[in-house]
Amino acid sequence: MHAPFWKNGSLKFWVPDRFQHRVPSGRPKPNAPPRALLNKTKVMSAAYEKGEIHFDKHHIMFFHDVAKETDKKRRAYDGVKTRYRDMGLRHGIQYPSSFRVTHDGNAHLFTSPTDVHTFLNKRERPRD
């Protein structure tokens, strides 16, 4: 189970693919009732239905677990994501690890960071 972490003022959680998890609570006492179980499907559904979740004035986000290789491919786009964010352009990662860009009303899908860099360098424009 992944630990939560803070990023950009938001508390983020990855919800593992395993169906149920026991809530960590230390060693149970003899004759104690069983520990609570987390049901991934219910947690993710509730988070989706609720929309934005806040705790102590912090935004909490839930994500599905992804394979290490997929995560590595997604992280390869970090540099171009920063450039697109600075330019104020719409962008995002599309499952499993493609980079989607909306530029001048047209959607473009890339499968490598090199292709995104080439596209960006050809069309780089200042923020409106």
Concise structural overview:
This protein has 128 residues and is an alpha+beta fold. It has helices at 40-50, 68-75, 78-87, 113-123, and strands at residues 5-7, 10-15, 20-22, 37-39, 53-55, 58-64, 90-94, 98-103, 106-110. The protein has two domains: 5-65, no CATH class; 69-123, Rec A Protein, domain 2.
Comma- or semicolon-separated keywords:
128 residues; alpha+beta; Rec A Protein, domain 2; 2 domains; 3-stranded antiparallel beta sheet; 4 helices; 31% helix
Backbone shape: elongated
How many separate domains?
A: 2
State the share of residues found in helices, binned by percent. 25-40%
Radius of gyration: 19 Å
Structural class: alpha+beta
The N- and C-terminal alpha carbons lie at a distance of 43 Å
Largest sheet: 4 strands, mixed
Poorly predicted runs: none
Record the strand order, biggest sheet.
1-2-6-5
Order of helices and strands: EEEEHEEHHEEEH
Find the count of extended strands (DSSP E, 2+ residues): 9
Beta-strand content: 25-35%
The helix tally amounts to: 4
Overall pLDDT level = 76
Please give a structural write-up.
The radius of gyration is 19 Å and the shape is elongated. A four-stranded mixed sheet has the order 1-2-6-5. A three-stranded antiparallel sheet has the order 7-8-9, covered by helices on one side. The chain folds into two domains: 5-65, no CATH class; 69-123, L1 transposable element, C-terminal domain (Rec A Protein, domain 2). The protein is of the alpha+beta class. It has helices at residues 40-50, 68-75, 78-87, 113-123, and strands at 5-7, 10-15, 20-22, 37-39, 53-55, 58-64, 90-94, 98-103, 106-110. The model has no long low-confidence stretch (mean pLDDT 76). The longest helix is centred in the middle third of the chain and has 11 residues, at 40-50.
